[in-house]
Specification:
Elements: H1 2-19, H2 32-44, H3 47-63, H4 66-80, H5 100-119, H6 129-145, H7 147-154, H8 164-167, E1 173-175, E2 182-184, H9 192-206, H10 216-246, H11 266-283
Antiparallel strand pairs: 1-2
Length: 294
């Protein structure tokens, strides 16, 4: 399911950046097929790489193969390059060579997933009814507030869409905070708010499988990572929404700090603290609310 989400998002990015001119997109310069392929490549090197890191432990545990463990370690290192300075630059979203390692890591993680689907141990989600209800509530809210980003990914505004058009500001021309120019409140194309939505849903879906991981240390590390990924995804979605739906309406000049990149900041400290609390309360092994260990 997680791979399907990212596949659909990548296809949407490819098609939208192929058919629309760079002038109505964001920080890209290429057009046509090259523009679409390039932006999809950059997309896969970011949020898909972070999702792949969460998928790898589950897949490797099911394979129980030293060759898979070695390949998984390589995939992890490649995907982790997404956090290096300069790999992801919001001001330059054309493809770069520095994006390549993460894309290769995603491809390797996907290959390992296919291997596990054919030869890996069969496991089922180990969760609770309350845990799944909590996931549905959080995921449903995230999906609703992702509406402007899903529309942007597909290349249209919500202005003429019943109900949603009256809730979300999308096509109206607004000044970009901190910049000297104006454009659509929610520009066409990909947004980091969409990345946030995808990562939050990834964490929610994968958290159902944590209890099936048999290696205790791996299970604990995976649970911690998914808790942090959930907080990171939701925070980025909220931050993007705040800028485009609150600040651009002129309701306030205060903006939520950008937390897209790791930094020594109060915002990142708060995110890590929230992630650890979520882990301790809901995802820690043997905790019954979200999942239970084997």
């Amino acid at each position: 399911m997680v791979w399907l989400l990212f596949f659909l998002a990548a296809v949407a990015v490819f098609v939208t950046y192929w058919r629309l001119p760079p002038t109505i997109l964001w920080k890209v310069h290429n057009t046509g097929f090259i523009g679409g392929a390039g932006r999809a490549y950059v997309f896969l090197s970011f949020s898909a790489a972070l999702a792949a890191i969460g998928i790898l432990p589950i897949v490797l545990d099911r394979l129980e193969d030293r060759r898979a463990d070695l390949a998984g370690l390589v995939a992890f290192v490649l995907c982790a390059t997404v956090a290096l300075p300069g790999v992801q630059t919001e001001s330059h979203l054309d493809p770069k060579w520095s994006n390549l390692p993460a894309v290769l890591g995603v491809a390797l993680a996907f290959g390992l997933t296919l291997w596990a689907s054919r030869a890996g141990r069969r496991d089922f989600p180990r969760t609770s009814r309350k845990g799944d209800i909590a996931r549905l509530v959080v995921g449903g809210l995230s999906l609703f507030f992702a509406a402007p980003y899903i529309a942007a990914e597909l290349g249209f505004f919500l202005d003429s869409v019943p109900v949603l058009g009256s809730i979300f500001l999308t096509g109206a021309i607004r000044r970009e905070p901190g910049a000297g120019y104006s454009h659509a409140a929610v520009h066409h194309g990909h947004h980091h708010g969409m990345d946030g939505f995808l990562l939050a849903v990834t964490a929610l879906l994968l958290s159902r499988l944590v209890g099936s991981i048999r290696r205790p240390v791996l299970r604990t590390l995976t649970a911690i990572y998914l808790a942090l990924l959930l907080v990171y995804g939701l925070t980025n979605q909220v931050q993007d929404l705040w800028t485009e739906q609150i600040v651009k309406r002129g309701w306030t000049n205060w903006d939520i700090p950008n937390v897209l990149h790791p930094s020594l900041s109060a915002a990142w400290a708060a995110m890590i603290a929230c992630g650890l609390v979520i882990y301790a309360l809901f995802l820690r092994p043997r905790q019954r609310l979200i999942g239970r260990s084997s």
